Amino acid sequence: MGFQHESTLAGYAREAVDLKIRMTEYFSTSGFADYARNLLTVQFSDDNTPGLRFTDRAIAQISHYGSTTWQLGEPYVLAPAMTAVIAAAANTLDLTGDVLTEEIAPTDTGVLFLPEPIYQRHDDGTIHSVGAITWTRAAPIGNGPPVWRIAAWADLNDPHDPTLAAVRQRVAQQPALATALSPYLFLDLDQLPIGAPVPGVAWSDTPEPEQDWQNAPDGRYVIETTSTPTKVCVRIAYAFWRISAQPLASLAQPPLERPARRRANRASIVHNTRVVMLRRTSQAADRGDGDAKWHYRVRFAVRGHWRRLHDKDGRPYRIWINAYIKGPDGAPLLHGEKVAVLAR
Q: Could you tell me if 325 and 300 are in contact, meaning their C-beta atoms sit under 8 angstroms apart?
């Protein structure tokens, strides 16, 4: 089970429903509370706050957020061809000082699945896949403004995530640990104010001790968590919101198979899945009339990667493809210091 085994729009829609049901059921157990408490304790504890503990109320609020967004969020699936565009835009975003409106997101509550994950590297050198993004519009706390609450989730079954490969190996040795895990593991949480300037994240100037960094998967996008004052989950969500509303994006709503639709209705799951794809500017060539004529309206950076080939005897080998810019000459470039192309 997983998007790695799907290649059709109907398959994406069916898989999105099944994963939303499994995630919603997971929040009805104590597994998420234990996992979130341990994760946040590690993330926020330091020399000044050793053994930091989060209250049951705080964990319950995070659990309620997760349960609500996975059950009621409108599902989107990002087609693999769009991943490079979203990742390139997210890699350069810095929202510090910007003012967001209530109309910036396509829905008040949503779940974005990334069949081809974007990876984030933490300041300790570890890498996690971002396989899903959730968001919801939340009421103000006290006298503050309302907020967009955004979370990143790592795909437990991602074969290229070195951190989760170790987790799966540990679960294989201790099957009882599987009850504390879900298809997507809680990775990060942040929020953006609505109608007020976005605050920056203040990073420590203390240098990190020397350590071995995990190798990134070949040909995949990796965003550093400390490269800008805006968290990775926020950058990916915002880039998706803006680009999905641009003419270069096309949204398809594939029909859901009857069994999957019944499962979603029994679980009270919102299941109107939309697949976000790159829009074609011309019709593909007819069968037998040469290669399909596929055109992009933007240019974007393609990272260096290994290409797998076979020789005339069928033996596999691979060659290194250097980084390059893909897209037609003169089109807007979704990479670099400026991201004005994201504005309406």
A: yes
Quick check: 67 and 27 in contact, CB under 8 A?
A: yes
| 32/182 Cα distance (integer angstroms) | 8
What are the pLDDT digits (tens) for 70-101?
999 999 999 988 888 899 889 888 888 889 88
The Cα 197–Cα 194 span in angstroms is: 8
Q: What angle do CA 281, 251, 283 make, to 5 degrees?
A: 25
Q: Which pair of tokens denotes residue 175? A: 């099957």
H helices of the chain, where?
Answer: 9-26, 31-44, 56-72, 80-92, 162-173, 232-244, 258-266
- Per-residue pLDDT tens over the stretch 234-292: 999 999 999 998 887 888 889 898 999 999 999 999 999 999 988 764 444 344 444 44
Report residue 206 as tokens. Answer: 């203390």
Buried b (16+ CB within 10 A) or exposed e, 91-117: bbbebeeeebeeebbbbebbbbbbbbb
What pTM did the predictor assign? 0.75
